[in-house]
Amino acid sequence: MAIADLFGSASLPWLNIGGRESDVVLSSRIRLARNFRGIPFPNRADFTQLAKVQEMASSVLPEMEHAVGQSFDVVDMDRTSPLEREVLIEKRLITRNFLRSPQHRVVFISQGRHVSVMVNEEDHLRIQCMVNGLDLDNPLSMASGIDDLVESQLDVAFDEKMGYLTSCPTNLGTGLRASVLLHLPGLVYTRNINNIINISQQLGLSVRALYGEDDQEWQGDIFQISNQLTLGFSEEEIVGNLKSAAKEIVSHERRARKALELYRKDQLEDSVWRAYGILCHARSLSEKEVLDLLSKVRLGVDMGFIGEACAACFSEILIGSRTSYLQNLAGSDNMSGSELDRMRAEAVRKILSVHRVE
Amino acid sequence: MAIADLFGSASLPWLNIGGRESDVVLSSRIRLARNFRGIPFPNRADFTQLAKVQEMASSVLPEMEHAVGQSFDVVDMDRTSPLEREVLIEKRLITRNFLRSPQHRVVFISQGRHVSVMVNEEDHLRIQCMVNGLDLDNPLSMASGIDDLVESQLDVAFDEKMGYLTSCPTNLGTGLRASVLLHLPGLVYTRNINNIINISQQLGLSVRALYGEDDQEWQGDIFQISNQLTLGFSEEEIVGNLKSAAKEIVSHERRARKALELYRKDQLEDSVWRAYGILCHARSLSEKEVLDLLSKVRLGVDMGFIGEACAACFSEILIGSRTSYLQNLAGSDNMSGSELDRMRAEAVRKILSVHRVE
Fold first, then answer.
1. Sign of the CA dihedral A140, A141, A146, A151?
2. Quick one: pLDDT band at residue B308, thresholds 50, 70, 90?
3. B270, A345: Cβ pair inside 8 Å?
4. In Å, how far is A27's CA from the nearest CA of chain B?
5. Which listed residue, of A79, B94, B278, B337, carries a Cα 20 to 30 Å from A128's Cα?
6. Interface predicted TM-score of the whole assembly (ipTM), two decimals
């Protein structure tokens, strides 16, 4: 994938349908936080120190590429437009934190977009590995491989008692954050989602809606579940804990869908196809409406109401319908809401026209 | 067209898009009421007298066929199932009046379905001629041709002062009822339709919604305008009066559409395409919803938002989505509402799949 595709293409391989439990689990992610000994954390470091970190990280880049088996694009925030940065956030390849000040903020992104290493985010290094479906082991082993490589060449801050030292105490210890993206329309529709959120929190997990978090409107019915604790547990324990919680939620979601199929099959099938018809033909679509319709269509695919063909469009529409993506495509953040909605509908139609189902 | 198509096909040539002012006027119709001298009107006639009327009418059928240049199907109500009769009503080839008692009620229907002659409806003969678009002259000349032929061979009740004698006094004189079907979504949307109805009534015209009349919900935005008076005017005056009223309404409707295009083009285009998307994909559709969606799509065709291709489907969906048509197709009037709605959605999808537009 060319570097231009990072901003210009809506495709994101690890969000495509695939992997284990892919009827419910969209993707899994491992993130490791690491810092170099003797250099202040990025928020306290001066430009010379940030430059030093950037230099150190860059020095191990060839080995990273070798370990992952892919070349990496190096994206310098200082040479990236604000609109392009928003696209990277939307694609979850960088965080908003990363943009506080762009100097010496660099991200290494693998060609397959499965690996992103942020340099000088909250910590010196944030190593992220993403895959489709429910699979925390492979991204953990990939992230650990990159980490081993870094530690073999550079002096990483580690304390026998505290583990890896991190800028924020919530990351102390393993420096590990594991997360899973789940599509839970069944639990939302049957109003069981709040129970799931409450129970997960009691288990030390954090659950949040990927879109529309603020207003308690769960746009798109997509939720991220991640571990809250990093200290006092081994990496295996953290990952194992999250994995079994995710599996539990998956089985609750499947039960909810079975119940819907039993009692509301006709209405459900009708609403799935109407959603598809509107996505295929509307001339104006808001961000929120796309997510609502897309959730229905994805549910329809997973429940077998609608052809697999349009499953391929899911991730592309998810990214390609976002305002930030459209603004970057148009090279302007001055478009009116109705211009954006028109452009969004056009983008969605274009994606769906490739994989039309009947 | 085979006689089986009368009940099994939703196609109705004179409702297809075509003719003059076809962006607003769906079709035009002339109906003549005639009675034979010396035989009581059908509601007072005994079976022997009704049989005599049927025999007289049948005797001129070959000449009618010759005059119209098409063979006629002869449909005997006594040998027609209740479900089939409903289809003929839906297609406007017979009236509900015609069904009060089926004995000796026969209708002659031309192959092109433009001419229907009811024998023993309220009057001995009801000669109907229908064409696409705004054109009362051709159907009038066709109906008059048939009438001339009848009068040349049979003794028709005519009074020098009263004109043609008819069962109901409202048809006395010319026995002529002229009517036009108009699609008026612009006037409905801009809330000018009530003015049009009131003014038309003051001009001696009757305006009624074709569907959903009772509850003042004008389903499908289709209206029929016809003359109320038959006595004291010549045929030419009646037809001329209706024609100029129709032209006036057409220009009001066009102005309303222009205003919509000026102020609401984007919303309108979006709603037209959404309607099309839902018609193409929904798995359940009520009669009312089909009419609402179909009205939007037809408006979109006439305003150039959507390809002509799906214009061809308009009349077929209009008939093919009706409950009576579906019940006859299924051979049952015992289907539940949801079964019917599912069957209706399937029928609409099938019709649209032939003429898909993007």
1. positive
2. low
3. yes
4. 30
5. A79
6. 0.88
